[in-house]
Structure formats: structure tokens, C-alpha cells
Amino acid sequence: MNYATKKKIRSFLKNLDEKYLDSFIKRKIIGRTARKTPQDLGFSSEEWKQAKQELIGQINLPIPSDRDVRRVEIIILKYKSPEMEAKCMQHLIENTQWPFKINLFDNRPGTKNMSKILNKLFRETTCDYLVIMDSDCFVPKLEPCWLTRCMETFEKYPDCYVVSPAITRIGCPQQRAGAPRNSKPEKFIEVFANPCSLHRKDVFEKVGYYDENFLIYGSDVEWSYRLLHTPGCSAYLRPDILVDHIHHGSASKAGKEEVQFSKIKLVEKEYAKELFDQKTKGYNSI
């Protein structure tokens, strides 16, 4: 007996049972219970009607806007390190309780000009807050979570436009740490990098966007220099949050596929240093 014939027989028996036997076969022979009525579940007619109205009300509720829930967009540029990117995403999903969405932007067919890409994504976001995150950063498990703590900083410090956690393996001394410290947020007094940092979107209206003359290196540090010199704008460090960072991990791994990677990297870093010194009048090296 083929499948089509079996299906026809089952359909015939089901219709026969429901129409003439009051689902006797279903209830007694197969052992399944018939669909329960509202009365079986302990509802009065009025209670059942009210429950249905509440259900319909939930169905018709509008989706809350990103602004209503203060959702944060987390921007990550995907390049050529799928294992590292997956680990980064896993830490975010498991360790973040604040409302967020992830923009994992595939940069493989793109350009080395990270400033152009990030500026594009900054302008397109529908959120009032955004995180810039390298794919080799791994956020910790905390209570309250790392992002909740960062968002609270804006409420406590009205001049705050950027919040950075402490970070392992990073060139900026004020950000660098080997362990979290149970101390209050501190204002940045020197330039900093953005491998993992939370921004109010309106900060770009005050400070401007990333300088698109930079390529991979230097744009975030030069931008932080401008922020520190913008009246009324400050950035704060959260010493109680430590993000594990594999310094230049994604770029280094991807670059091993290229024979001239080391030479190109050296040229790019020297170019970034010269450009930074030129734009900041020799503030310091990056």
C-alpha cells in the first residue's frame, strides 16, 4: 500500500469518527483526548470572552521603537575570522541583557577604509545608542550586565557621550587593565581607542564622523582627540567592566593569507601615525 492510499484511508476514518462516532476512535482506541472546551478549563463565558479580548489586544500592540526601549545597535565588521566572530557573537548573546541588535557587517567584499564603512553604518542606524566592537573582543558575564552598566553611565554623568570598558591588550594606557576594578567611572584624560565602546549617536553631530583619510589604523584615536577637545563632551571609562581583547587578532589572522602582509601593515601604521601627528599637531603617537 503506497503513501497516497494510506493517506486517503486515514482521512476517511478521521472524518467517519468525527462525523458519526463523536471522536470515539480518537478518544478510546488511539488514547487521545478530545479538544477541551472553555468550561473544561474552568472558564466562565465572560472570563473566556475577556481572555480572548486580551489576546487580541496583545496581537494588535505596535512594535516598540528602538528609541522607546533605548535599544543599542552593536556594530561589528565581519572580515575573515569566522571562529573569532562566532565567539564574539556568543559572548554578546549570552552576556547581554539590555535590549540590543547586532549589525554584523560583512566587509570581505568591501574596503580597507574602515572609517568610510563605519561612518555609513553610524548614519544608517535607527538607534540613539551604538556600540563599535571589534570581532576579537569578548564581553564578560556580569550582573547587571556590561551594557546595562555602560548605559547607566549616561544617566549619572550628563556630559558623557562615550563609555568604554577596561580592555586587555590595548595600546591606550588608561583603558588597559589585567583585571576589573570595583571603582566608579572615571573621565578620560588622554586619547583612547574604540575596540569596544558605547556612543550616543548625537555625539557625531558635535564631534563629527571618523576622518576618512585613515584606513585601518588611527581613525578612532584621532576621533577621540577631537572629542576630548569638544566643549561639553566627555568620555568615561568603566573600570568595573573588563573586555578581553585579542589585539589586532582578526586583522593578523586574515593577513597571513597575504605574502606581503607584514610590509603592508608597517606602511599602514606609519601612514596612520604621520596623519595623526599632522592632525593633532604632534599630541602623541598612536
Number of domains: 1
Low-confidence stretches: none
Helix count from the secondary structure assignment:
11
Question: So what's the overall shape?
Answer: elongated
Considering DSSP H and I runs of 4 or more, what fraction of the residues is helical?
Answer: 40-55%
How far apart are the first and last residues' alpha carbons, in Å? 77 Å
DSSP strand count: 8
Could you tell me the radius of gyration in angstroms? 28 Å
Beta-strand percentage?
15-25%
CATH topology: Spore Coat Polysaccharide Biosynthesis Protein SpsA, Chain A
N to C succession of SSEs: HHHHEHEHEEHEEEHHEHH
Structure report:
The chain has 286 residues and is α/β, with parallel strands linked by helices. It is built from eleven helices and eight strands. The chain has helices at 3-20, 24-29, 45-60, 66-69, 82-95, 114-124, 146-156, 203-207, 219-228, 249-255, 261-280, and strands at residues 72-78, 100-106, 129-133, 137-138, 160-167, 186-187, 196-200, 234-245. Strands 1, 2, 3, 4, 5, 6, 7 and 8 form an eight-stranded mixed beta sheet that branches. Strand 1 (72-78), helix 5 and strand 2 form a beta-alpha-beta unit. The chain is elongated, with a radius of gyration of 28 Å.
Supply the key terms.
286 residues; Spore Coat Polysaccharide Biosynthesis Protein SpsA, Chain A; 11 helices; elongated
What topology emerges from the helices and strands here?
Layout: H1 3-20, H2 24-29, H3 45-60, H4 66-69, E1 72-78, H5 82-95, E2 100-106, H6 114-124, E3 129-133, E4 137-138, H7 146-156, E5 160-167, E6 186-187, E7 196-200, H8 203-207, H9 219-228, E8 234-245, H10 249-255, H11 261-280
Parallel strand pairs: 1-2, 1-3, 5-8
Antiparallel strand pairs: 3-7, 4-8, 5-7, 6-8
Helix pairs in contact: 9-11
